[in-house]
Predict the structure.
Amino acid sequence: MTPGDAFDLPGILSLVRPVATSLMSSFHGEDHWRDVASIGLALREQTRECDPVVVVLFGVLHDAKRIGDDGDPPHGVRGADLAGALDLGRFGLSAQQLALLDKACRGHTGGGLSGDPTIGTCWDADRLTLWRVGTVPSARYMSTAAGREAAAAGQRFARVNDWSEISRRLALARPRASSPLPQRT
């Protein structure tokens, strides 16, 4: 799936919400999911190799199966397992996208860095929300140049209150078709 394809975010959310264990959490619930997706799309503007579809899905799924707001190290694995159980391939995701999503969800709790632009963007977007729990995001824990820049500047991102805005921005993130080369006569 490319960002320009029809992306059924409402359909995916309708499958995740009923089984999410963190939906109503003030720290890890749906507002946080949307913030991570939104920040990820903002970071993607400087990290063009990043897959924005995976970033948005990471936002939705990475904390969906978190149990409580305190330490819960295996919640990333449960989020990845949920992604697998949802059969996201039926929504047009490629095997590569599903593998990136799985790795991003599983690995986001360890504090590590990633050289992969998509996974790094996912993790940076999550870490750039640490303000919500009273922690200042640190550039040294950011995987991408965009994430390091945002953390070093103390950047706070505007809250997006509706998933339709995420869908709109995702549609804008699609690669633009190149115009045909002029014909020589």
Notes: The chain has eight helices and no strands. The helical segments are 9-16, 30-44, 52-61, 75-85, 95-107, 117-127, 145-152, 163-172.
